Sequence to fold (392 residues):
Amino acid sequence: MSEVLEGRTAGGRGVRVRFSADGIEEITDHPSAPDLLLIPGLVDIQLNGYGGLDVNDPSRPASELADLVRALWGQGVTTVYPTIISADDATTTTLVRRAATARATDSDVAYGVPGLHLEGPYISSAEGARGAHDPAIIRDPDADEFDRWQAAAGGAIAIMTLAPERQGAIEFTRHLVQPSSGPAAARGVVPSVGHSLATAADVHAFAAAGGRLSTHLGNGLPAQIDRHENPIWPQLTEDALTAGLIADGHHLPADTFAALVRAKGATRCVLTSDAAALAGCAPGDYRTAVGGAVTVGSDGSLRLQGTPYLAGSGASLLDCLRWATGPGGLPLETAVTMATTTPADLLGLHDRGRLDVGARADLVQLTSTPDRAVGDLVTVVVNGRLIAPGNS
Fold:
């Protein structure tokens, strides 16, 4: 049975969208459409948790990932790549296996989580570059270890963040991009450079070996770096790499964000939230599996308690979209593409992240202000199913 949703696209076109569980069936012009923004469901390729739900804590209930997927509907996020940070072999195995079980037993998770993102442990152990990752478990890449994780994940690991300067990293990158075989067969993994002090030669070698993404470009670095010889510039100039940018207003100042987008080109940038488990929680002091003692500030930032250091993001991707089109200065259509079509295409999801006939019916309807700012969530459609925000 088909249903209809009306509104104005990010480009301002009034449309009526007819959809069902089979996908978007028809899009027609509707000049008198209500003044509501109608965009594809958001695609978040880096998120550790939200609203107190944590994909990095093996002691949490088995339903955690399913609860997270449904909680994110209330933020307009219909596709997510849960991100597991540096951990020991046993913990990583447990976490990816739990995710695989959730994907196999819950249809909402199977649809909403096309893959997983491993952020580490093959990253820089240098202070500043490692961020909040535990230096005790950071190590050089190990293809056999990764293959065990991929088997435990049922082939679901889709993104791997690593530091190209680590011993064996370039060979490991080549290993990642090769399609696997066997019962846990998966297409090649997207290698991403992050938490790295790579030289320009390292970055270019990484891209030549199959690297395709920069994890939160401009972050995961020491506070002081050389003005010329640093990892940012070669990542900006390397066309093979798409830049992930945390648009929460804390990780990147507005001018820095704008400069990175202009230098890289908006078509090679994606918005990511890097949301941690405490994102969306009330201000106060908390203890989490990742970061330990963390303070949620009144400004929404997450910081290691008693320090100025960020402990992930306190924003959802919808919050990031609002900031990117406000202080971030991006045109609405550009920012929406960076949060939908571009990340979907990067991960091979060419039937999501777009308002096209034949695409999956993942839709978000929001209010908009007179200056076309992104307002409040009105309606969410997930794979053709109408979801009432707040009742997910």
